[in-house]
Amino acid sequence: xxxxxxxxxxxVLTLAACTSGAQQPxxxxxxxxxxxxxxxxxxxxxGLGKVTWNLPYEPQTLDxxxxxxxxxxxxxxxxxxxxxxxTPDFKIKPGLAVKAANPTPTTWVYTxxxxxxxxxxxxxxxxDVAASLRRHLDPKLGTWWGDYFNTVKSVRATGSMQVTxxxxxxxxxxxxxxxTGAGAVVQKKFLDxxxxxxxxxxxxxxxxxxxxxxxxxSGDSMTLTRNDHYWDKALxxxxxxxxxxxxxxxxxxxxxxxxxxxxxxxFYLPPAGLxxxxxxxxxxxxxxxxxxxxxxxxxxxxxxxxxxxxRQALSLALDRAAISKVVFQGTASPQRALxxxxxxxxxxxxxxxxxxxxxxxxxxxxxxxxxxVQAGSPTKPIVIGVQGSSAVHEQTANLLKATGEAxxxxxEIRVVPVEQYGNLYSDPKARKGIDAFLSTxxxxxxxxxxxxxxxxxxxxxxxxxxKAVDGAIAKARAEGDxxxxxxxxxxxxxxxxRDVVWMPLNNLPVILYMNKRVTGAVPSFPYLYxxxxxxxGAR
Length: 539
Hints:
Layout: H1 9-17, E1 51-54, H2 70-76, E2 84-86, E3 92-94, E4 97-104, E5 107-112, H3 126-134, H4 146-149, E6 152-159, E7 162-167, H5 174-177, H6 188-194, E8 211-217, E9 221-226, E10 241-245, H7 250-259, E11 264-267, H8 274-278, E12 283-298, H9 308-317, H10 320-327, E13 333-334, H11 348-356, H12 365-374, E14 382-387, H13 391-407, E15 411-416, H14 418-421, H15 423-426, E16 436-442, H16 449-452, H17 470-478, H18 482-499, E17 502-515, E18 518-519, E19 537-538
Parallel strand pairs: 1-10, 1-11, 14-15, 14-16
Antiparallel strand pairs: 2-3, 4-5, 5-7, 6-7, 8-9, 9-10, 11-17, 12-16, 12-17, 13-17, 18-19
Helix pairs in contact: 1-13, 9-12, 11-18, 17-18
């Protein structure tokens, strides 16, 4: 069952009516300030025998090197731990490594934590860590975390509890990535035994986290059980088992949450039934801090949309506050850059000042029309790809098309079936004839450079082959001083934002629903890499 689109007629009329030469701020559509949680969740009074949670779809695999998405990471975060740990308040702290030393600009030495065992009782060793990280270097395995490993020269166990990573050049992102799924550790013996079946329903994984893989019933659910020998006493699982359901249809999922059949779920986009969940008497909704954003990703290498003036015009005329209020049901905030404040993990004042200097989120139709005249008043259609069966995509597409009409731009919406939409990110043939496409996107660590690295020359997600910041990205990744790096990154941000390579639209919070019988889930973005379910239990 597809989601029903919310009314956008009033918004379309508003956009079409913006014909005066003055700037047109959208006062009525601005969403209320969001109450985003910044701390760990309320503690459960006691554990439960079973907690049932829903994933937005069935994971493709539990192999950490190919688990770069919501459902996969939501499950793995409770099972497979990384060298470092991204905490709910966006800090990077020790994980399976008690220390990360950087004796030279191209060397990272990790001291592995003693006393940690895998679920089968075998002790964690440096060989396990080295084997897990080296998998990212094997092109035959096809890691999805390659952007963090393209500077890695070698990974070696240099002691029984020490691993040394040698880089080809300094890289400010590599060590931070060890707090994400990129740094996840699977037992070497298990890797060798499982082979190509690693992460499948038949094999699962062998890790060190607070929950163990128990079984996976394809098309239905996955069950994790408590690891009673988990090393971190503060994060030992309260409840005995965690059943992860795979209810992909949002209406069915919302009904299961309201009825209590399912205890909770994370949403990265607001479901059509969000209002029902917010009014539910059986549970509650929490909005949490996030690194996720909604954007229009440019992919044109020729034609009108390849001209930055055309992209600037569309961006200037688009009503982001209307998208926040109507499309995202008041759960999102207009955004003037791809990276908002939750990315500012260092030099916050520098990033704040740079952000405030960027063009505001308000609309200016007159200036937008001037830019189009400078661009030669293009008449060729601009083709925007949107995902089928998605109200959020459909409603945003309607606003984009209405904005184009107000400007005199011919915007054509191309609906791509949900099963094929993922191909737009990886297959140039799938993007053929598409000038831009809508996307949720997220970085993995609290550093804006993590996002702007996508625009490096030859990068797999640099869809339009944008080259203007390639040199600056290389310098920023090689810069070890935080202040100097922030200066470089804000320069990249300014250029990328003004050229509208990707058009930032809205910052998206984590949307967490929990039934009243449970509490303790982490209400912030690090749930993708942090053992968010360890604290789940009864109120």
